[in-house]
Write a structure and sequence with these properties.
With about 350 residues, this protein is an alpha+beta fold. It has helices at about 1-25, 70-80, 90-95, 100-125, 165-175, 240-250, 280-290, 310-320, 330-340, and strands at about 30-40, 45-50, 60-70, 85-90, 130-140, 155-160, 160-165, 180-190, 190-200, 200, 210, 215-225, 230, 260-265, 270, 275, 295-300, 325-330. β10 (about 200) and β11 form a beta hairpin. The longest helix is centred in the first third of the chain and has 26 residues, at about 100-125. It is globular.
Length: about 350
């Protein structure tokens, strides 16, 4: 009899354990895992009208593989796997919803491509026209009356029926307004025009005494003499800007900028060619080393808070990576470095 009840008890315990294990598969953790991603050549992704794609070497962008630690088993994997960085969801996304975060990544990539196009064409001596084209909402403050009415990713086109194309116009319009006055913002969201009445609030540390409590970024319309197509597929974020601009330049200028080398890099780019800091630099140099890259461009540390240059050199030293790391402040510094390289000697 005791054996019978003992077997029933054992089955209940095993059943309970099985149920708990199954449940644990569906309990998300508040973390993202970041690992070395891909190293992708750029000639197939960038096409400049009238440009030349043939070269002895290649230019590459670098990516970071990110995944949600959707259960405790992924979390455990992240703790044990080499070259894996773990960050909280709040650290990665802030208070953005998933939809807002996706819009922000898409905006950053689109802006990055525009900046790269302008910087690359201008470095090659091409004419480019840049025109303001609305204001992108990148943040809505919790204290703003716009919270719940305006979302990250909305594009503001008018204020009180007046067209607004750039930040300067927007600030000038609000210059003589007072707190609690209302303005009507007309904006597009996912291609649909909408409007909302927003009460103005006092602002601290701002030239304007009042505002709507949203952080805005200028959007631009780019006009060029020749078409440039960039196919980034599902790559998000702004960190491929430098390499996109170098590929645009390389297809336009006479001569092969690569000289037979395999050249990767990372860094944001602005329209005048300045290179900016990015995330995931340690994961990227690991991916670059695995891919057998010769030269890796990274953002130089310019400001006191910059760490890309220090981090990538530290990671390479710790792991014995032999790739040549070249910190740059501008696209022109990268171009000058490549121009001075001797052609790579082929192995017979």
């Amino acid at each position: 009899m005791n054996t019978f009840f003992s077997k029933i008890k054992t089955k209940k315990v095993l059943g309970t354990i099985t149920i708990l294990i199954l449940i644990s598969f569906f309990i998300p953790t508040p973390y993202y895992l970041f690992q070395p991603g891909s190293v992708e050549e750029l000639a197939s992704k960038v096409t400049v009208e009238g440009g030349e794609k043939k070269s002895d070497g290649n230019l590459y962008l670098t990516t970071v593989l990110s995944m949600k630690a959707s259960n405790i088993y992924y979390l455990a994997y992240g703790l044990l796997a080499p070259h894996t960085d773990m960050r909280s969801i709040v650290e990665v996304k802030g208070d953005f919803t998933d939809k807002e975060y996706d819009r922000m990544l898409e905006h950053m990539m689109t802006s990055s491509q525009q900046n790269a196009l302008v910087a690359g064409l201008r470095a090659a001596g091409e004419e480019v026209q840049v025109k303001p084209n609305g204001l992108f909402v990148s943040t809505v403050l919790g204290t703003s009356d716009a919270k719940g009415k305006i979302e990250v990713g909305d594009i503001i086109r008018k204020v009180d029926g007046e067209p607004i194309n750039q930040m300067e116009d927007f600030l000038a319009f609000l210059g003589d307004k007072k707190a609690e006055e209302k303005v009507t913002l007309t904006f597009t969201r996912d291609g649909v025009e909408k409007s909302a009445d927003i009460a103005l609030i006092p602002l601290q540390n701002s030239e304007n005494k009042v505002g709507v409590g949203i952080v805005l970024e200028d959007q631009f319309l780019i006009e060029t003499a020749r078409s440039v197509k960039i196919n980034a597929a599902d790559i998000g974020g702004p960190s491929a800007g430098l390499m996109f601009s170098l590929e645009v330049y390389n297809q336009l200028k006479i001569g092969d900028l690569t000289k037979g080398y395999e050249i990767a890099g990372t860094g944001t780019i602005d329209m005048v060619g300045n290179v900016g800091q990015i995330g995931g630099i340690r994961e990227k140099i690991t991916a670059v080393d695995k891919a057998g890259i010769d030269v890796f461009f990274c953002p130089a540390d310019v400001h006191i808070t910059d760490t890309n240059e220090k981090d990538v050199l530290d990671e390479a030293k710790k792991n014995g990576y032999e790739v040549k790391i070249v910190p740059v402040k501008t696209i022109q510094e990268a171009i000058n470095y490549l121009k001075e390289l001797p052609p790579k000697q082929s192995v017979a």
